[in-house]
Amino acid sequence: MKGKNVYILSDAHLGSWAIDHRRMQERRLVRFLDQIKEKASAVYLLGDMFDFWYEWKYCVPKGFTRFLGKISELTDAGVEVHYFTGNHDIWMYGYLERECGVILHKQPLTTEIWGKVFFMAHGDGLGDPDRKFKVLRRIFHNRTCQRLFSMLHPRWSMWFGLKWAQKSRMKRTDGKEPPYMGENKEHLVLYTKEYMKTHPNIDYFIYGHRHIELDLDLENKSRMLIIGDWIWQFTYVVFDGEHLFLEEYEEGESKL
Question: pTM surpassing 0.85?
Fold first, then answer.
């Protein structure tokens, strides 16, 4: 619906044991979604909104009721909510689609929005040469491994998943990602430039995952954005049909 905005955000890692302010963080995210609900035609969540999410047949992780309720309110009001699985919330098997009305994406998405072509993805595994990460990613995505994990009682498997995620984050200084490494070293930049060779018609490449803010002009008037996170930066992308901005949410207001 032109005349309204499209919003894109990523990486809240709700429920993380490595984040002391996680209740405030969820409330801040919900306030933002509440303030844009009348202005939004669609919201794209580019993955890792949960620090660990795993669905069993008859139960899902506890918590996040404010966030899930607000998503449901948006979809009930006719706002499209697109959810991309990341590397912390791969294991979604229909709950958010059935109960909250989201549109789930497990692969990168190329889509046209008001005449502009967007390529959106969480960003994990794109251009990253780390062999250990590639092996883990294959294990996490393997259906046999997922079925075996589902046999564990949630009491222990949820603890394991949250503990793993906490340990991974605490390896980083202050729990934050390393800063931008430059065009010749940043994996997502290198991946995007290579991808553009066979897909020159894309206007905007938009990623999460890296937890940094980057707005980079590329060839053919394309732009690539890495959109920060909702742990420390509280950043988001907004597209009004003509212009695209990378903004920071200030408590109590949304600029667009």
Answer: yes
